[in-house]
Fold this protein.
Amino acid sequence: MGTLTPPLTPEALQPVLDRIAAEMAQEPERGQVASYIPELARQSTTPFAIALALPDGQVLRAGDADQGFSIQSISKVFTLAIALGRLGDQLWLRVGREPSGHAFNSILQLEHENGIPRNPFVNAGALVVTDAILAGHQPREVLGELLRFIRLAAADDDIHINKAVAASEQATAHRNIALAEFMAAHGNLRNPAALTIGTYVHQCAVEMSCAQLARAGLFLTGAPGGPRLVSPARIRRINALMMMCGHYDGSGEFAYRVGLPGKSGVGGGILAIAPGRAAIATWSPGLNARGNSHLGTLAMERLARETGWSVFG
Ligand code: GLN
């Protein structure tokens, strides 16, 4: 991508963001909010936000870009970075690196594949990642490390866990408990399922604004001025996983329409990476049938088209 598209100035990018936010405000089709976590079911489909962080740390924003929302599965990118730092390639003995083609919370493949989840971004895989970083630590310590990592990446200490969202997910976590117990039956869980689930629902309940999330994603652009939290080789691999698996059974569609690695969450957020150029965050709570933000995807598609950013040339 680097050689094909020249870096764009903030002055050129800001009107693009403003236009996208204005267009999204007019869109009649806004998707459906996640209904299985009561606290998220209360959201409205009205908000839309987009923020873009440049390698020098500057953050451009449009719409509700300073409003906090539940990052949910976007947290899986940060826990994966921590787990790889801690365990390195050992992690891949317990979780795969292939797209699933199944819903984020599906249990189908786990039975066929002996309790080894397809990738670290489906729920089962993310539970393994959390279980791996829990080993020998208290949930409080792991969540503290996660918050430190995110705050460092975002250069912002005002990032917290929404306890009401965590409690709400915990109370309805039947599917995730089933996934965890099933993996325990296959010897792929080291901690009691309740401990891993308790940690996982809190990591998903981290609340950030689009401006904070875009800034926190900057380390994944590998841009020279950005924060160096993981090695360049690892950045490439995390981006590869985001591209292939970051939108679950909608990953192929996201790659086709947007052409950038991305990770979605059922809170309506998406983080996308334009390597060497920018980290982009969108938020709109209405989801499509695959559980990915409807307007967020549309906005990312328009941004990629207008900037020419794509990892495919
Ligand atoms: N906490 C959510 C869950 O486990 C995360 C899912 C998501 O964001 N896709 O169901």
Notes: The chain has a mean pLDDT of 95. The first strand starts at residue 49 and ends at 53.
